[in-house]
Every structure is written in structure tokens, then in C-alpha cells.
Design goal:
By secondary structure, this protein is an alpha/beta fold. The protein folds into 2 domains: 146 residues, Toll/interleukin-1 receptor homology (TIR) domain (Rossmann fold, 3-Layer(aba) Sandwich); 176 residues, Endonuclease, Chain A (2-Layer Sandwich), CATH 3.30.870.10. The protein is 40% helix and 18% strand. A hairpin with a 7-residue loop joins strand 12 and strand 13. The relative contact order is 0.12.
Length: 344
């Protein structure tokens, strides 16, 4: 699953979902274009987007603007293929210095020989380590660059830490694999829905019946976590109405359960739920899955309700646990019940 998207960076489409790849700026001397073209092709096969002046600059673009105002700033890793020609080029060294000035860009000098590594200016060697691209280590070095490219996203794109990749996009629940119907089928042990009012789930009669069937016909436990009327600041009138409607929907569902089924559907109302939007499926299983809306998405992508997906079987187990623990805090004694909400 690919990593989350931000405003910057190359976007691709997958079932209506925007994806992001790491982007590498390739800095090189034209005398060394053949080996850099090979690097570019192999990096792109590994899922890395490469910015290279060849093919990137269209007619009418100014070279300097394209490189220094677009190319370098929009990349998260700067790969310099360093040779004697590179070190002798004022333009190449200007690109390198520009990348070193940014605290958002990971700089990786890759030299053609040990002798060239030793010739790299001291002010560069004080900041970054120069690697040596030996012919017999080409694939090892390439894999290391790919790893650094993904890792650099953690700093430059302010992404959550992940061992693999995170799928994200504003249209995830519109895709077949992640529709509400699919998620209801995927739950085998536990389903936790947490958000300010969960109106998108509880206003749909088909979804409500699906939630009831989970409790009546399967061993799945269903938990709702929603906000209260008084949070960090009072809810807007419309928000309060939506919340009350959701509380009434939950009460109606609970009334349809038998005494034996009742303990397996629970609802909690907590002030902290206004800051949370998360869906957990089987959180205690090794193949658990989490959907959440990161707070940074509101800042960087205000036009989208970005949803991230973490599959515990492949990535971000630590983040999964952290969000899960924060959700469980909202089920403690200070949480209100459905009856408490409907009395307000």
C-alpha cells in the first residue's frame, strides 16, 4: 500500500484515491548523463518519482526557475552523482548547496570513486556522508537509496512513522475494497467506530442493519465512541443535532438486542472524540486494520477529508497501538452513556 499524499509531490490515482511516491531530484553533470539515466529508470521501477532536467522542463520554462523554485523544493531527497566533472561545475555545486540549505531535503552524494569522495568539499562532508557507487555494488546502493527516499518522507512530508507504506485518500470509503459494506464483512472479532457524531454510518439504514447483524449473527463486538455536547467549545447547533440523532439511532439499535446480545454493543460519549476519527477492525488481531483522519491533513489538505489506512499485518504497528490506546481512554469512567446524552 503506498504512502500518504500531501499537497506537494507527485500524485497518482487508484480507484479514486490519491497516492504519493517519494520524489528524488537527480543532480549530475551532463557528461555523466548515461549512468544517471540508468539510475532514474531503475528508481522509477522501484516506485520512486525522479526529477531530472531532461524531459521535465518544457518550452518557455526558465531553467533556473524550474530547478531552484520547482525541482529541488518539491523533492524530498536530493541525489547528487558526484564526479570530477560535477565538482568542477559551478551549476552542479549551486544545486548541491541549495539542497543543503533546506532542512526538508535529505541529501545523498553518490560518487563514482573513492578518490572523488575524498575530493568533495569539506563543508559538504561535514553535513552528509558521501557514498561510493561501485559497479559490483550497484543494486545494493540502489536499494539503499530507495529506502532513504521512503524514509525521507517522514521528515519532509511530516508523515507518521511506518515500516512499510500507508494508503490514503479522500475517497477511500468510495472504493469497493474499503466500502462500509466490505468493512462490516471483514470484521471477525471487533469493530470500533469513533468520531464526533458518526453520522455517515448511523444515518444509513443499510449500515445500521449491518451493524445489528454483526452482533446478532456473529461473535463481533461493536463499540461506538462519539463526542459530547460540551467539548473544548460548545458544538454548533447543527453538530449538536447530528450528535443527538446518532445517540437516538444507537438507542434504537440497542433496544433491538436481546439481554445476551446487549453487552456486545456499547456506546461511549467523550469530549475527546471531537479530535478523533478512527475505525478499528479486529484491533487485537495480527491482521487488524485502522482507518483514521490525521490532524495534519486538516492543515495541509483542508479541501479533502483525507483518510489513512494502516494494515497491522504490514506496517505501523506502533502507530496503530498509540491510536488504539488513545481511543480506549475515551471509554473510561468519565465517558457518558446514551441515556446521559439523551437526558441533556
Amino acid at each position: 500500500m503506498p504512502l500518504v499524499d500531501r499537497v506537494e509531490g507527485p500524485a497518482r490515482q487508484l480507484g479514486g484515491t490519491r497516492l504519493i511516491q517519494p520524489r528524488i531530484f537527480l543532480s549530475y553533470s551532463t557528461q555523466n548523463s548515461a549512468i544517471v539515466e540508468k539510475l532514474k529508470n531503475d528508481l522509477e521501477k522501484a516506485g520512486i518519482d525522479c526529477w531530472m532536467d531532461t524531459g521535465r522542463i518544457t518550452a518557455g520554462d526558465r531553467l533556473q526557475d524550474a530547478i531552484f523554485n520547482t525541482g529541488i523544493p518539491q523533492c524530498n531527497l536530493f541525489l547528487a552523482y558526484v564526479t570530477a566533472d560535477y565538482l568542477a561545475s559551478q551549476w552542479c555545486m549551486k544545486e548541491l548547496d541549495r539542497a543543503l540549505q533546506s532542512n526538508r531535503i535529505t541529501v545523498v552524494p553518490l560518487a563514482d570513486s573513492k578518490q572523488t569522495c575524498d575530493s568533495v568539499p569539506e563543508h559538504v562532508r561535514e553535513v552528509v556522508r558521501c557514498e561510493f557507487l561501485a559497479p559490483d555494488r550497484y543494486w545494493d546502493v540502489l536499494l539503499a537509496i530507495v529506502g532513504k527516499a521512503w524514509g525521507s518522507l517522514q521528515v519532509t512530508q511530516r508523515l507518521v512513522s511506518s515500516e512499510d507504506h500507508i494508503l490514503a485518500g479522500p475517497g477511500i470509503f468510495d472504493t469497493e475494497e474499503y466500502s462500509r459494506e466490505h468493512l462490516l464483512k471483514r470484521a471477525k472479532h471487533e469493530l470500533i467506530l469513533a468520531a464526533q457524531n458518526l453520522r455517515s454510518w448511523l444515518s444509513d439504514s443499510t449500515t445500521k442493519q449491518g451493524l445489528l447483524r454483526l452482533v446478532k449473527e456473529t461473535p463481533v463486538n461493536v463499540t461506538f465512541i462519539m463526542a459530547t455536547y460540551e467539548t473544548l467549545r460548545p458544538l454548533a447547533r447543527e453538530g449538536a443535532e447530528h450528535l443527538r440523532n446518532s445517540a437516538e439511532d444507537v438507542k434504537e439499535m440497542l433496544e433491538q438486542l436481546t439481554a445476551a446480545e446487549h453487552p456486545r454493543m456499547k456506546a461511549f460519549f467523550h469530549p475527546g472524540a471531537t479530535t478523533l476519527s478512527a475505525i478499528f477492525i479486529d484491533p487485537n488481531s495480527s491482521d487488524g486494520i485502522l482507518f483514521f483522519n490525521p490532524r495534519w491533513a486538516i492543515q495541509f489538505l483542508p479541501q479533502d477529508r483525507l483518510t489513512c489506512v494502516i494494515d497491522k499485518s504490514v506496517n505501523s504497528v506502533e502507530l496503530y497501538k498509540a491510536i488504539y490506546n488513545s481511543v480506549l481512554l475515551m471509554t473510561q469512567r468519565d465517558a457518558l452513556s446514551v441515556e446521559d446524552m439523551l437526558r441533556s
